[in-house]
Amino acid sequence: MRRDVTPFATEIYDVIVVGGGIHGACAAWEAARRGLKVVLVEAGDFNAATSANSLRTLHGGLRHLQRLDFQQMRISIRQRREWLRLAPELTRPLRFVLPLNSYQSVARVALRVNDLISADRNKAVRQDHHLPDGSILTRNEFTALFPGLSVPDCSAAAAWYDGICLDTERLQLAVIAAAVACGAQVANYVRALWPLRDGVKICGARVSDELTGAGMDLRAPVIINAAGPAIDGWLQGPRQFNASRAFNLLVRKLPFRDALGLRIAGGTYFIIPWNDYSIIGTRHLQGDRLEVSREEVLGFLAELNPLLGHLAIDEVYGVFSGLLPAADSGGADVALQRAPRIVDHTAQGLRGLYSIVGVKWTTALWVGEAAARRACRLLGRSERPVRERALSECVTPPGGDSARVVPDLPVVFGQIAHAVREEMAVHLWDVVRRRTPLYLSRSLDHSTLAACASVMARELRWSPRTTAAEIDTTEAELVAFKGHWRPEGRLRYASSR
Ligand SMILES: Cc1cc2nc3c(=O)[nH]c(=O)nc-3n(C[C@H](O)[C@H](O)[C@H](O)COP(=O)(O)OP(=O)(O)OC[C@H]3O[C@@H](n4cnc5c(N)ncnc54)[C@H](O)[C@@H]3O)c2cc1C
Prior knowledge:
- The protein is of the alpha/beta class.
- The protein has 12 helices and 18 strands.
- The two termini are 38 Å apart.
């Protein structure tokens, strides 16, 4: 996968996909699988926005059961199964446990209905990724699973299985690589500026190469606008994405093997065991600011701590935050949009433009497929895929026998050169945050960053000045992720542990 924008100005495409988050990646793949000529442009790096900040849960849609929305529930079940099938290396089954103080019989019926509706949940999934039936646990069983936890009035617990993704960044890169393998042309650091039209029809998009500043006109009769919270910004049309804030805390690994659900102050939060950490969330807030303040982290901890014991702010290693589409902008509580939408802009005189308002990482393949099929219909082309859905490239990064970058993660220096040559890494932060999990290392420091930067400098012919600037930017990003809410302000980004 090499970044090459030279064909962009001369080729005629069928579809332009704007945005390289999970929805754009899936839409590009699904369109390319149907034989369409696709180009995908991403303003920053792939998977750098909302898609890199989720709770990593592959939801089977149990919540849709509460509202008796069987259609969305079935979509979630199928999509969870699809990720478990496509990427067993990067996904796992995980048991979720929610303590109950009443409604045990209701929970029992709900779990049974869930099992029945998802009877085909393991079809074609590797045996060791099968999801067992749900069950009701006794209070003693619950206490044994979650030692030290004090949940008042817990009389039993509901247990069910969902999926978890161990590395959403790599899985999404694999989707982009799969789109490329089907013929799609893709580039990060290319921003869509405005749509081009011919009367009431879309005929392309003006884009800018963010690395050189060069402007180009991409030609295509269809645009799939998958710019996430920015879908409205570059179109300057009516608002489709009503932003609300959401964040998760990355904390020290809590001694729980299962995911734990907790109902606190009207919200339900999950504590997910994830790699060598736990992730706690998702906390929903009003507004459209991405930054999470120290007060907001402390406020969340203050609500969790009566149940969890003492989780100190120093044990918060990072904050994953993003914007999600709210159902409306009014009211004190955030009401989230429940189902994904594809907006057809024909009524605004933009025939051929479809905007995706996605709600879950889990269902992005389904949404991408729906968008790709609309493109096929408009173009008078067959909606049947001509290529299989299979992920091979990029799911596991190349190992190699070069030296490890940090002692606590199996990342080797060879991966850094590979990320530049084959995975379109352009900046040091692309490598540290998205081509490798180095940002999670507890021993990453200035000298390891400098060593990584020198590999990239050789590959990309950076001057000493550019190399120093790349290290500075990466350190600033690490501080933003790991430490900006701490009392000391600009604290060292490497954990003090
Ligand atoms: C805290 C949190 C927890 C979550 N937990 C879960 C979970 O556990 N399970 C789950 O299934 N879902 C979860 N979600 C939801 C899920 O993460 C999102 O639905 C999904 O990632 C949205 O993907 P997207 O591609 O639509 O948007 P994004 O990932 O935001 O991608 C949009 C991309 O478009 C690019 N872009 C913007 N403007 C332009 C332009 N003009 N030109 C080119 N590119 C442009 C951006 O740079 C960005 O990369 C969570 C979300 C949050 C915030």
